[in-house]
Amino acid sequence: VVYFVRHGESEYNAKKLIGGDSHLTPTGLEFARKLQHWVKENIPDAEEELSVWSSTMQRAIETSSDIPCHQYVRWKALEEIDAGICDAMTYEQIEETHPEEFEARKKDKLRYRYPRGESYEDVIRRVEPVLIELEQKKTPVMVISHQAVLRCLYGYFS
User: Fold this and answer.
1) What DSSP assignment string belongs to 96-110?
2) CATH superfamily of this structure's domain 2-81+118-157
3) Can you list the GO cellular component terms from the UniProt entry (predicted)?
């Protein structure tokens, strides 16, 4: 069994900024507490069997840190897509300051690569080792990651 979970709301999420490595907001911390409670209520033997895999980014670590489990694993491969020069910007700011990039991303989201950043295709290649490990696991795994990464993982398993 694999559980996919997006991290709780981060300070950047609340400001509609992409990327970054910000901490959880109070809303995000409440989500983490509810997730911890959900695991206790719904995953029998979590402390003996559940592995929690998260990215190395603060918002994912903070979301996962109090979940009862057998093992925590931090994967750099589970980090959010690198938005390059657009990191810490809103989509509105990108449209204003880099209109050609904004349009290129709209036309081909899968292949579009942020300047000095990544594309979804890059993320797919990056998460391949995670997918191989997931397929070999015999015990439950909860993956706590980011929107772009989870889209790629969902796509693989769909």
Assistant:
1) HH-HHHHHHHHH-TT
2) Phosphoglycerate mutase-like (3.40.50.1240)
3) cytosol
